[in-house]
Amino acid sequence: MENKTKENRKHIGFFGRCNVGKSSLINALTNQEISIVSAQSGTTTDVVKKSIELYGVGAVVLLDTAGLDDNTVLGEQRVKSSKHALTLVDAAVLVISENKVGDIEKDFLEQCKSLSVPCIVVYNKQDVEKATEQTKKQVAELTNSQLLVLEDHSKEQMLQISSKLKDVLSSFEVEKRTVLQGIVKPLDIVVLVAPIDSSAPEGRLILPQVQTIRDALDKACICIVVKETELECLLKEKGIKPDLIVTDSQVFGFVSKIVPNEIPLTSFSVLLSRMKGAFEQYLKGTPYLDKLKDGDKVLMLESCTHQPTCEDIGRVKLPMMIRKYTGKDIKCEAVSGLTKIETPLSEYAMIIQCGGCVATAKQIHSRLQPALDMGIAVSNYGLAIAYMNGIFNRVTAIFK
Ligand code: SF4
After folding, report:
1. Can you state the angle between helices 268-276 and 361-373, rounded to 10 degrees?
2. Strands across the sheet with 350-353, in order?
C-alpha cells in the first residue's frame, strides 16, 4: 500500500542563494503563484510548502526555502531553517545563477551527501548571465551529474526537471514495504486490538490502525477490530483462531497474557517501525534500557504534533514505565513533529522513536542518523514497551 497522506508524500526542497529565482521556478513548475517572487533579496522568509501532482513523479510536497546566503537581520535564523528543511526532504533542487558556485553551494552539496539526500543542480536566469563551461564543469565534478541549464521556464524545461527528479528519487528509493508485508497471506484472520481510552481521538481510529486495516484488506485477509476488553471473549467464547494479532503497544502487557503463545503477536508501532524506521538499529538499541543509570536523559521522538493528553504515551505512560522498569531516576523529554531538536543529542543516553505513521522513511532516517552516528542507542515505542513487558522476542519473532 502506498500511503497518499500529505505527510507521506515525497518532499522536494528548492534551495539556493537569495535571488537565484527559486520561487519563480516553483511557480513555473506548479503553474501556480505559490511563492512570492521579488527582485529583492530575502523575499522567502520561512519554508513554504505546497502539495502538488508532479508529472511523472506523482503526489509530492514542494518546499520553497529562504536563501542560503541570507544576510538580512533575521537571516541567520532563516538559513538555519532552510538547512533544517534539508533533513525533511526526499530530494533537493539546488538552484544557481550568474555562475556562482562557491562555498555555499559546496557546503550544501556536502550536507546532501551526508544526509543521503539526492540533489539535482539547476542553472536559472540564463537571460541574465549564461552558464559558462567552467560552471558546468564545476557542477559535474561536485555532483557527478550534469548541470541542468534552463533556457526559460517553458513547459518543456519544467518537464526536464520532473524527469530528473523522477530519476534521482527512484535511484534513492527506500525499499517499498507495506505494513503487513511478508507476514500474512490471503484469508488469514488478522485481529487488531485498539484501546479506546481518553488518549484515543474522538470518533475515529488513529492512522497506524487505519493503515493496518487497509493493508489487511489489500492482502485479502479477514480483519477483525476489537478493544482489549473484548479480546478474551473473541478468542475463547467466539472461538476465533487468529493467524496474527496486532495490538496497540500500550496494552501489550495485558494482551500478551490473554493471547496463547502459539498465536503470533506484534504491535502497530513495531509494524510501522519495520516499514519505515531504523528497524535493525532499534533491535540492537532496545536492550540499552537495562543500562540506563540514575540521571540519564531519554528523548521521545514523535513525528506528529498531536495534542498531548493526561494519558499521553510519550509524555506520561512510557516515562513512567521506564522509571518503574529500571528503578532509576530517568529524565524523559518529548519532541513532537519534525522540528529541530534544540537540546544537543549528546545529552541523551537513549532515543525512543514513535511509529512515525505520518513521516516518510527518509524523514525518520534523517532524524535518527545523527544519534546513530554518535553511538546513541535508539529504540521504538512498541519495541521498548515489549522489552519492558518481557515479550520482545515474541513480538519480533514473526520477522525472523
Ligand atoms: S506520528 Fe507517531 S505519535 Fe503521531 S500518531 Fe503516528 S505513531 Fe503516533
Report:
1. 80
2. 331-336, 297-302, 350-353, 377-380
Query: Does CATH number 3.40.50.11420 belong to domain 189-271?
Result: yes
Could you give the 3-state DSSP secondary structure of residue 171? helix
Check if 285 has its Cβ closer than 6 Å to any atom of ligand 1: no
Please tell me the distance from the alpha carbon of residue 40 to that of residue 36, in angstroms, as a whole number.
11
Which class in CATH covers the domain with range 6-171? Answer: alpha beta
Gap from CA of 362 to ligand 1 centroid (Å): 16
pLDDT tens for each residue of 174-209: 556 789 999 999 999 999 999 987 777 888 998 889
- The pLDDT tens digits of the residues spanning 258-291 come to 999 999 999 998 999 898 878 999 999 999 999 9
- Identify which of 210, 246, 274, 304 to mutate to test ligand 1's pocket (most ligand atoms within 8 A of the CB): 304
Grid cell at residue 250: 500500550
Rounded to an integer, what distance in angstroms lies between the CA atom of residue 153 and that of residue 122? Answer: 12
Q: Give the DSSP H/E element, type plus range, for residue 233.
A: helix 228-236
One fold for 6-171 and 189-271: yes
- Distance in angstroms (rounded) separating the CA atoms of residues 115 and 110: 9
- Cα 82 to ligand 1 centroid, rounded to whole Å: 25
> What residue ranges do the domains of the chain occupy?
6-171, 189-271, 278-393
**CATH 3.40.50.11410 assigned to 278-393:** yes
Ligand 1 centroid distance, CA of 278 (Å):
16
Residue nearest to atom 3 of ligand 1 (CA): 302
Q: Is 334 in the pocket of ligand 1 (CB under 6 A)?
A: no
Contact status, residue 352 vs residue 300, Cβ threshold 8 Å: yes
355 lines ligand 1 (CB under 6 A): yes
